[in-house]
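Reviewers of the previous submission asked for a worked example of the structure-prediction workflow described in the proposal, so we include one complete record here. The input consisted solely of the amino acid sequence. No template or homolog information was supplied to the procedure at any stage.
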Amino acid sequence: MNILEIVNPAKCSEQDDESTKPDEGTIAKLLAQILQNKSKKACSLTQDEGQRLLLRERRLSIEEREVKLERERIEPMKLKKELNIN
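From that input alone, the workflow returned the following structure tokens.
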């Protein structure tokens, strides 16, 4: 039995006898599976989000280091210009 049969059994089958209707145990099992899959996906998304944040932090750290190195490279040139030293 699949979720479509539970949600709308009339669309899945023309028979309307009691044997084709899902019992409470089947419904409970399928709902438990759905909830379990949703929680797995949510956990996976949380891990992905954490990895994205970590990657972003690392990129920012690299950019900060690049800016610092650029400043260190430019500072002596500025001093030379200010002092008119060639």
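The radius of gyration is 32 Å. We consider this example representative of the routine output the project will generate in years two and three.
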